[in-house]
């Protein structure tokens, strides 16, 4: 159960991530269908209707996607990369397996409790107190493995990815503990304070965890897949900054003006790590762009990086009071959040898995054609999904700012856009099925011929 075989825990995290990618995906398509055809809710059997209500299903969809799918893909990547950049074995493979069991207990607990309405009722922080404690324990165990492996490394240079992994786990701990008020089973502060702290947590869940660690994963993948050394390690360290902000999500609220102005400034400063990463990205890719056509994993990485830059531009724009006043509470924000979670970070996770799982199971990927289908269906589907939501959000903003259009009329106008959202989600879902089937066939068909788990490839650690 707690194997000491090198690479076994990384493999487990990757395959658990694939399972948890499917579950919230089905939930998301159900939610999109109900938004487009609300009368379908009347067809639900009365006994299960409460568990399929939008509020319960949406919180389960979000938590399973961020902690079940994407976080476990990240951990699988971290555990794979650590031995290669340190030239030593993982600090404790058995500890990593214990981490896997506890992580999936936490996610399964969220799957059971959230549809039942057992929740703390705070956005992105809906998991109940025992599950919060499990998440903190999981981060601590992961941090021990990361710091322990780096401490006994045989490679004197600490590559930038290792710095981001160490920083990400350690910063995520206080962010999660404060944001979820971990010392209180109720998990909430009072009044406007709770609103401020909640969105400090929500934003820095992305900054401290998905962005900080995600950039480390991307900076490992980039030289590997482009087969070129990283342009500038120092520039990579500049891009390590994680901008601690979040109050700009609550502009024009009862929060103190000084806090709003301060966080607007920090949001604008997010241009520093964004620019550092993108310069490093384009300079490293010089002479390698032709590889994008034939290497689907690199194509996912490149597409994710370009959309990540666009996400950051949107984030800065949304931190200005005038623009925030228009788009906040509209479908624009839903499109923006999916841009970050699904198109940026998930695309990097797809590249990770395509590179690493074949190595971990010791055989070639089952089908290049399925990779192509996965890329095009998912990319086109998510572009349709996001563009129509952004347009819908701007229309909502125009209607609301006019102060003359009845709210119900605006709701009716949204229906075609929700139809396009559903269509885009179905395309992306078909792409995800190609992805999962391809990896399942890769792992299941032939007897395993294990690859050397500690071998470093070209460009690693350069």
How are the elements arranged and paired?
Layout: H1 8-36, H2 54-86, H3 93-113, H4 129-151, H5 160-179, H6 191-226, H7 233-238, H8 257-268, H9 271-285, H10 291-294, H11 296-317, H12 321-327, H13 331-361, H14 368-402, H15 407-413, H16 415-444
Helix pairs in contact: 1-2, 1-3, 1-13, 1-16, 2-3, 2-4, 2-6, 2-13, 3-4, 4-5, 5-6, 6-9, 6-11, 6-13, 9-11, 11-13, 11-14, 13-14, 13-16, 14-16
Structure commentary:
With 462 residues, this protein is mainly α. It has a single domain (8-444), classed as Cytochrome c oxidase-like, subunit I domain (Cytochrome C Oxidase, Chain A, Up-down Bundle), CATH 1.20.210.10. It is 72% helix and 0% strand. It is built from 16 helices and no strands. Helix 3 packs antiparallel against helix 4 (129-151). It is globular. It starts with 7 loop residues before the first helix and ends in an 18-residue tail after the last helix.
Jot down its keywords.
72% helix, mainly alpha, 462 residues
Low-confidence stretches: 448-462
Shape: globular
Q: Specify the structural class.
A: mainly alpha
The total domain count is 1
In the CATH hierarchy, what is the architecture at level 2? Up-down Bundle
CATH topology: Cytochrome C Oxidase, Chain A
């Amino acid at each position: 159960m707690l194997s000491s075989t090198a690479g076994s825990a990384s493999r487990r995290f990757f395959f658990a991530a694939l399972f948890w990618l499917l579950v919230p995906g089905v939930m998301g398509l159900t939610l999109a269908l109900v938004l487009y055809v609300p009368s379908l809710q009347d067809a639900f059997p009365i006994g299960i209707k409460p568990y399929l209500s939008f509020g319960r299903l949406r919180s389960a969809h979000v938590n399973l996607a961020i902690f079940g799918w994407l976080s476990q893909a990240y951990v699988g990547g971290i555990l794979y990369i650590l031995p290669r950049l340190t030239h030593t074995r993982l600090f404790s493979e058995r500890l990593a397996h214990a981490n896997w069991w506890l992580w999936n207990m936490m996610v399964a607990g969220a799957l059971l409790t959230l549809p039942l309405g057992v929740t703390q009722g705070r956005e992105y922080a809906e998991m109940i107190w025992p599950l919060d404690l499990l998440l903190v324990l999981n981060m601590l165990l992961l941090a021990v493995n990361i710091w322990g492996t780096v401490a006994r490394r045989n490679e004197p240079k600490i590559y930038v990815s290792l710095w981001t992994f160490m920083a990400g786990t350690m910063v995520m701990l206080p962010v999660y503990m404060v944001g979820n008020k971990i010392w209180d089973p109720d998990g909430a502060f009072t009044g406007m304070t709770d609103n401020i702290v909640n969105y400090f947590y929500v934003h820095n869940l992305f900054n401290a965890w998905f962005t900080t660690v995600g950039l480390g994963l991307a900076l490992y993948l980039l030289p590997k897949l482009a087969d070129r050394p990283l342009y500038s390690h120092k520039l990579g360290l500049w891009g390590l900054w994680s901008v601690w902000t979040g109050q700009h999500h609550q502009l024009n609220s009862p929060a103190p003006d000084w806090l709003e102005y301060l966080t607007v400034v920090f949001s604008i400063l997010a241009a520093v790590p964004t620019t550092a990463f993108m310069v490093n990205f384009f300079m490293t890719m010089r002479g390698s762009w032709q590889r994008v056509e034939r290497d689907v994993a690199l194509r996912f990485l490149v597409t994710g990086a370009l959309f990540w830059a666009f996400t950051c531009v949107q984030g800065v724009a949304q931190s200005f009071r005038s623009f925030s006043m228009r788009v906040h509470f509209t479908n624009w924000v839903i499109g923006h959040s999916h841009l970050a979670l699904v198109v940026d970070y998930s695309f990097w996770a797809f590249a990770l898995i395509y590179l690493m799982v074949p190595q971990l199971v010791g055989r070639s990927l089952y089908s290049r054609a399925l990779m192509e289908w996965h890329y095009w269906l998912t990319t086109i589907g998510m572009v349709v999904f996001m563009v129509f939501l952004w347009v819908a959000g701007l229309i909502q903003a125009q209607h609301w700012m006019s102060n003359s259009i009845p709210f119900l009329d605006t709701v009716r106008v949204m229906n075609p856009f929700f139809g396009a959202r559903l269509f885009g989600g179905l395309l992306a879902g078909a792409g995800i099925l190609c992805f999962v089937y391809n990896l399942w066939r890769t792992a299941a068909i032939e007897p395993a011929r294990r690859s050397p788990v500690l071998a470093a490839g070209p460009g690693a650690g350069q």
